[in-house]
Amino acid sequence: MSIRGLKKKQPKTFKVKIITVDAEMEFSCEMKWKGKDLFDLVCRALGLRETWFFGLQYTIKGMCTWLKMDKKVLDQEIPKEDPISFHFLAKFYPEKVEEELLQEITQHLFFLQVKKQILDEEIYCSPEATVLLASYAVQAKYGDYDPNFHEPGFLAHDELLPKRVLRQYQLTAEMWEEKITAWYAEHRGIARDEAEMNYLKIAQDLEMYGVNYFPIAQNKNHTDLLLGVDAKGIHIYSINNRFSPNKSFEWSAIRNISYSEKELTIKPLDKKAEVFKFFSSQLKVNKLILQLCIGNHDLFMRRRKVDSIEIQQMKAQAREEKARKKMENQRLAREKQLREEAERAKEELERRLFQLEDEARQANEALLRSQEAAELLAEKAQIAEEEAKLLAQNAAEAEQERQRLEITALKTKEEKRLMEQKMREAELIAVKLVKESDRRAKEAEHLKQDLHEAREAERKAKQKLLDITRLNYPHMVKYPQYLPTDTRDTNFDKGSIKLDLKDIDLKRLSFEIERERLDYLEKSRKFEDRLKELKSEIHALKLEEKQSGLYS
Prior knowledge:
Helix content is about 60%, strand content about 15%. By secondary structure, it is of the alpha+beta class. It has four domains: about 15-90, Ubiquitin-like (UB roll) (Roll); about 105-205, Acyl-CoA Binding Protein (Up-down Bundle); about 210-305, Roll (PH-domain like); about 355-470. The chain has a seven-stranded antiparallel β-sheet with strand order 9-8-7-6-12-11-10, with helices on one face. A five-stranded mixed β-sheet has the order 2-1-5-3-4, with helices on both faces. Residues about 475-500 have low confidence and may be disordered. Its main location: membrane.
């Protein structure tokens, strides 16, 4: 067979792009493939065995439609594009996620899809619940909280809360992160699959979880109701309330569901009960509703039957896998705990080593300071010793000076006493001199008086002699040369004798008075000189005594 013949026999293919919640894949499909062939290929690529929950969704003319498994892909009304895009999504939801979702990949795909629906506000969630769900999402993504690694701002680029919640409360991104981190820190030790399962267990209790809503009307003219299809049954809602249904039909109570054009009929199991009829906007909507009803009803009935061998094997494998993961998680937790303990011990040892190094450094610094202090003290001791010697020398000199001052003081006292005695003697001499001066003055006054009396007596004697001479020798008064010599001489000799005697006494008296006056002046001068000397000595002694007192 030629190479050209092999090329001709190769089947024709077309490209499809499969978009999951977190990835994209491209496949080449044969032209004859049915929807189930493409779906099985995707499930094998994902490693998914719980295929009954999922489907391939595409959008045509603004309406979301699921790819039919029993028809060829190209025979269905799909977008004309290359590659053809399909979204691999959960089509049916379990009643109890913990019991029905067996594979980890199934849990992960449901977790991502439900999380996206909550963030896109397709499922309403209270603000408190959104914060708790966000904390489990963070635990699933980042693992255990570590304050040293998960610093403030590490959630800045993660979308964790619906925009409605962010608008409802005037909180900053840092405040929301603080609230989420407070819950996140409580989930320590929870593995990723456990965190995702806890997320789904909380989400499955929300009123809008797993419900597909379709606008319907009780007549052909008005669309004033919503029909919801979920894992438990069919529910009728008012147009403004998607939380509390006005009427519900459980799958176990429905006998038949059928449609004719735009009309869809629900027949209860109880034949006496009223048949519910409603109208949709398009025939395609009724087909989609019927498709979802059939799938959910089949799953509802299968849950209440004995599990098939495949399901039993999957559950057994899931239990073994959970046990293995649990043991593995426990082992990892122990290893992590041991590693953390080792790290803490290492940190403690490093801290202790750093502390010891610091203590050693401080001890060395203290030793250096002690050595410096010792050297300084030695210098101070030497200086103190020298100062002590100097002080001892000064003390000896002070003692000598004190003794000298004592001797000087004694001498000064003795000299002072002698000086006082001399002063007293000088005062006595001065008093005596004053008295003597007064006495001499009085004597001089008496002598002057006697001299005056003597002179007066002489004058009187001379006058008397002249008077006598006139009377006896009148003619000789005018001519005393003619007096008789003898007579004259005789008489004059007598008088002369008396006069001479009187003159001699006067002269002698005058001489004595002059001599005594000179002696008095001489003594007064000597006494004044002595007084000056005494004053100088007393002044010098007072100055020396003052200086001695200040020095002491």
